[in-house]
Design a protein that fits this description.
With 476 residues, the protein is an alpha+beta fold. It has helices at 2-7, 35-48, 99-106, 124-130, 137-140, 168-174, 209-219, 258-261, 282-286, 292-307, 319-323, 350-366, 406-422, 437-442, 448-459, 468-472; strands at 13-17, 24-30, 52-55, 70-74, 81-85, 90-93, 111-113, 147-153, 159-162, 183-193, 198-206, 225-230, 242-249, 272-273, 277-278, 313-318, 341-349, 373-379, 392-400, 426-427. The chain folds into four domains: 2-77, Uridine Diphospho-n-acetylenolpyruvylglucosamine Reductase, domain 2 (2-Layer Sandwich), CATH 3.30.43; 81-193, Uridine Diphospho-n-acetylenolpyruvylglucosamine Reductase, domain 3 (2-Layer Sandwich), CATH 3.30.465.10; 198-335, no CATH class; 338-459, Alpha-Beta Plaits. Helix content is 30%, strand content 24%. The strands form four sheets. An eight-stranded antiparallel β-sheet has the order 16-11-13-12-18-19-17-20. Strands 5, 6, 7, 8, 9 and 10 form a six-stranded antiparallel β-sheet that branches. A hairpin with a 4-residue loop joins β5 and β6 (90-93). α12 (350-366) packs antiparallel against α13. The protein is globular. The two termini are 24 Å apart. 47% of the residues are buried. The protein binds flavin-adenine dinucleotide. Flavin-adenine dinucleotide is lined by residues 19, 53-60, 64-65, 75, 95, 117-119, 122-123, 125-127, 129-130, 132-134, 178-179, 183-184, 326, 430, 467.
């Protein structure tokens, strides 16, 4: 940090981490509350020759919102909803507004975000920069597909408002552009009409990977939401077995208590488990089980219950219960401390998915590093320049990081990535911490990276905006 101390004397240095807590970096953190303050920070950084990394809620698993010896421009306090039109479901937001802030403000009017992530804590700015997807990616696409207009502040200090119609090239590059082209300071997003605060859910078990993929594919046009959990410890003929959950919004005439269920308070996740154990403490109970034998047991029990008493069950859940399952156990990432966790999410075209995912599960087992949590989703392509989506499936694999497995794990990630590249697949930087840059770059075969470099040259010729992720993935 010596260069920085000289560059910004008197400014407090903070340690900033990725959500998985396996990566961190010290930087000078600024938390502006308006565009003028952002402009001042960019100007200061440029004048001192210090790069800037943009940060939302810090919910990317790895190093997307980190950079050593940099100014960390944290947008989370620029979090006002500036406009809301309940007649057409369009919201004007500042970048630090979270999914949580948004849905709580609009649900009583009968609206819900078109796309939400597995946790409600990310910001809309961070979500657009990664172009996040939900469990309804096949039917509704990515967050960027519901963005009508973006306002961005370029490192030069120029404020620019873009829409798909006025500057489609820039619009489709900034969304999913990992915060490398400019600071998103405002967005207009379109939400969707809902008539109840509940979803109709169908739970189904699958005895192997082929069945998982077939059931998910069959369900994709009948159910808006399709998500699968895979027991990554199962081997042989049971490899890839898991549970699928499909869901649709409950229709206007199907919920007599619709008005009540649309109240934000009716969506609150319970603070206690079974009415007794405070959920804030739950991660401490899980910690002793967060090792290979413990997770093998948890995965096996979950599958056994889901494939017997839970199989082929239909029930209703609130929107928050179904959408934000990962918020059920607050701070659950702490079970992985001190080493933290990483995730690897690859996207593979339909025809190749079974072969690639079977190989990945096998590679993990052979390396003695089975994934503790494995999640399957169905995706469709989208028009964004560096999109991660394909017409296919994604498999997200969580791994604990320890002092003794770190090198092996990083090698495993490279091994997992190779068949994805061969199959014409993609990777998702929001979840990544370990992918070698050459493998990431190899997934773009139609000049996308060159086009991105040309846009970067126009919007940020001095390369003020950087991140550890962009450096690692060899982005321009
Ligand atoms: C438990 C959990 C579940 C998740 N589930 C999903 C899921 O279902 N689907 C999915 O797609 N993702 C998922 N994610 C990933 C998460 O949604 C993304 O990483 C998202 O980008 C995080 O937003 P953030 O506000 O925390 O941004 P950060 O992580 O802080 O930053 C993300 C990127 O955006 C850039 N950035 C931030 N703000 C701005 C801005 N205002 N202007 C320009 N660039 C900016 C940063 O530089 C960085 O590159 C999940 C994450 C967690 C922890």
């Amino acid at each position: 940090m010596s260069r920085m101390r000289d560059a910004l004397p008197g400014r407090q240095v903070e340690w900033v981490e990725g959500w998985g807590r396996a990566a961190g970096a010290a930087g000078y953190v600024y938390r502006p509350t308006n565009v003028g303050q952002i402009r001042e920070v960019l100007e200061l950084a440029r004048s001192r020759g210090v790069p800037v990394v943009l940060r939302g809620a810090g919910r990317s698993y790895g190093d997307a919102a980190l950079l050593a010896e940099a100014v960390v421009l944290d947008l989370s306090e620029m979090n006002r909803i500036l406009g809301w039109d309940a007649s057409n479901g369009v919201a004007q937001v500042e970048p630090g507004v979270t999914f949580h802030d948004l849905w709580r403000s609009v649900l009583a009017d009968g609206w819900w975000p078109e796309v939400v992530t597995g946790t409600m804590t990310p910001t809309l700015g961070g979500g657009l920069a990664m172009n996040v997807h939900g469990k309804n990616n096949w039917t509704r696409g990515t967050l960027g597909e519901h963005c009508l207009e973006l306002t961005m502040l370029l490192p030069s200090g120029e404020l620019r408002t873009v829409t798909p119609e006025t500057d489609g090239e820039l619009f489709h590059a900034v969304i999913g552009g990992f915060g490398q082209l400019g600071v998103i300071v405002g967005a207009r997003v379109r939400l969707k009409r809902v008539h109840s605060g509940r979803l109709e859910v169908h739970a189904v078990a699958a005895q192997d990977l082929a069945t998982m993929l077939r059931l998910a594919d069959d369900a994709k046009n009948r159910w808006e939401y399709v998500v699968g959990w895979i027991d990554a410890f199962a081997s042989g003929g049971r490899s890839g077995r898991g549970l699928l959950h499909f869901a649709n919004h409950v229709k206007a005439d199907e919920d007599p208590a619709a008005q009540e269920s649309l109240r934000a308070e009716a969506q609150d996740l319970p603070a206690r488990l079974a009415g007794v154990v405070p959920k804030a403490l739950l991660w401490r109970f899980l910690k002793p089980l967060t090792n290979r034998p413990g997770m093998r047991l948890i995965n096996a029990v979950k599958f056994r219950l889901g494939s017997t008493i839970g199989n082929d069950k239909r029930y209703r859940q609130t929107l928050a219960e179904f959408s934000f399952l990962l918020d059920y156990v607050p701070n659950w990432e702490r079970v992985y401390l001190p080493g933290g966790l990483i995730q690897h999410q690859s996207f593979v075209p339909v025809a190749e998915a079974e072969g690639v995912f079977a190989r990945q599960l096998e590679l993990c087992r052979r390396a003695g590093l089975p994934s503790f949590l494995a999640v399957l989703k169905r995706h469709r392509p989208d028009p964004f320049l560096l999109t991660h989506a394909v017409d296919g499936f994604s498999l997200a694999l969580d791994f604990p990081v320890t002092a003794s497995n770190r090198d092996r794990l990083w090698r495993l990630v490279a091994d997992l990535a190779e068949p994805v590249v061969e199959a014409g697949g993609r990777f998702y930087p929001a979840k990544d911490a370990a992918l070698p840059g050459e493998l990431y770059r190899a997934t773009f075969r139609d000049g996308q990276l060159e086009r991105f470099a040309a846009i970067k040259e126009r919007t940020d010729p001095g390369r003020l905006l950087r991140s550890a992720l962009a450096d690692r993935l060899l982005l321009p």
